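pinned: reference chain
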Amino acid sequence: MPPAKSPFSWNTPATRTRETETTAAGEKSTTACAQKFPPAACYILQPESLPLARKLAQKHTLTLFTPAAFRPMDCQPFERLSELLRGIFTAFETHIFISSTSAAVHALSHILKQSEQEPAVLVVDPYGAHVICLLKGRQEHGNAACLALAATLKSHPVPDAITPSPTLSTLELLARKYACHILDPAEEKHLLTALPKEETIPLYDPLGIIETSKKIALSPTNILPPSPEPAISVHWRYISPRPRLLRMTTPCLYAGIGCRAGTSKQQILNAFAQMLQTYSLEKKAVKALASIEAKKNEQGLCEAAEHLALPLYCYDTATLAQIDVPHPSAKAAEVFQQARISVSEGAALQAAGFPNAELLVTRQTYDGCVTLAIALPHRYRE
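pinned: its structure tokens
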């Protein structure tokens, strides 16, 4: 069935016939590592995913779509992804999301009709480590695209061996219910194959974020099972990935940042990465950055927040000075004319909901120009 004409103003690429080869038996089969597939729509939901999308666009015929808030010149803007998809879903044979699996399924949940004539849908995780085929689509374009994209990125392909339900999976619903991020979308299928067999999957959730129910066979455990046993982990700490482990995290950490005038974006990002590594914290568990109002227009800090795709909360001096912090800064007290103040510790605590919050990492200094602290609400303490 030919694709429908797009109601939007831009032109969608003409559909290209997939290359095939003839087997000895005279049947047609897809070339195993085909590098071409019909022109596709590619949705970039975070600015840091743009380099990954552009790398794919150099090899394949893609139309790139990004939120209007950060639209670059080589992308088409959209205000609401769900409205965009309603208008162009049938105009492309293949749709590629550079995002989490749950974000892609949520965007498509109201327009999928569980028809064999649906276009193919793929998800590339933001790190480019996995390419997952959610829907094979017409003539199985999805699996061909999955192999081709994985070959381009030198990543792990997860083709669709069995047609999945185009509705939210049990695990995706679980993640959404408790505001968690799935960090290993490729492991979802491995665990979902175990669920229908009524096998109990160990749930390592020492913080008690997820409540078990009869809808999913989870068995709470205080010890993370060793590989290769299947398991689900939920924590704001960094847990190393491994096969058959579905890692989830919940954004609940707030990073307070102080910096000298003129501190560069890269210095802040380096300090942030070093802190996460030193204290074994999951990057996706950080919900926001926080600082003092005097730094709200500091270029390096603003650029770092934009790069991390995190909001930057800034608080007035009087508010931060009222927070009792363990490591006040004499320099900050002099600059902001306060008796006792710590920008990083105070801002982190305020963002996390002080007084119902506590410091997880006290003030640390990096490169002589950046101070960082991490706070979290009492609800998420270990």
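why pinned: Residues 328 and 342 are 5 Å apart (CA to CA). The mean pLDDT is 82.
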